[in-house]
Amino acid sequence: MLKTVHLDYDLSMIAKADHRVNESSAIATKMYHENSKFPKTYVPENTRIHQLWWTREQLDFELISKKLGITVCTVSSIILPPGCVIPLHQDTFHKLRTQFPDHPGHMVRAVVYATEYDMGQCTQYLNDSRIHNSTDWKIGDGTIWDDQVPHVTVNGSMKDLCTVNFSGFIQDEDIAVYPIIF
Questions:
Q1: Coil, strand, or helix at residue 94?
Q2: pTM for this structure?
Q3: pLDDT digits (tens, 9 = 90+) for 56-74
Q4: Cβ distance 116 to 159 under 8 Å?
Q5: How far is 149 from 15, CA to CA, in rounded Å?
Q6: How far apart are CA 173 and CA 175, in angstroms?
Q7: Quick count: other Cβ atoms within 10 Å of Cβ 58?
Q8: Which of 99, 107, 153, 163 is positioned for an S-S bond with 123, CB 3.0–4.6 A?
Q9: Contact indicator for 105, 178 with CB cutoff of 8 Å
């Protein structure tokens, strides 16, 4: 499942937040696993991310849910520093599955850009055996996908790249309007 979106919501507070307080590797849990398929060249220094979690007191989950057409349950933002990559992967929705283990709905994530595009930044994703490139975005542009969409984000620019990840479930009445695009 894949859909492009534009979220008309003020994301400046998120983009300006001090993400440096929470640093990790995008693949920390997989990097040292004996069955890891990641090449040894992926190390903490080039897979570094800074992630913050946001609450209903900080953001209007209900309004965002209406605008995106999904029921937003968790929100995090990620700063990907220059020279870093979030390697090719498919989302597992770990936090969502932990918080809502018996929810029957279809899990999705809306990845929305909170900073303007800068040359050298790119998200690629696979849909219908075709690779698509997301570049030249505006603040609020993004994509909604499920756990079947492989994707990778690269920051080869000189500026931080900030995305906001809205995770939740497709709203029942919207299932029919979520076609595969491209």
A1: helix
A2: 0.89
A3: 999 999 999 999 999 999 9
A4: no
A5: 25
A6: 6
A7: 13
A8: 153
A9: no
C-alpha closest to that of 165 among 84, 103, 92, 100:
92
- Kindly state the greatest CA–CA separation across the chain: 45
Q: Which two tokens stand for residue 73?
A: 């349950």
| Secondary structure, 3-state, the chain | CEEEEECCCCCHHHHHCCHHHCEEECCHHHHCCCCCCCCCCCCHHHCEEEEEEECCCCCCHHHHHHHHCEEEEEEEEEEECCCEEEEEECCCCHHHHHHCCCCCCCEEEEEEECCCCCCCEEEEEEECCEEEEECCCCCCEEEEECCCCCEEEEECCCCCEEEEEEEEEECHHHHHHCCCCC
pLDDT tens, position by position, 104-126: 899 999 999 999 999 999 999 99
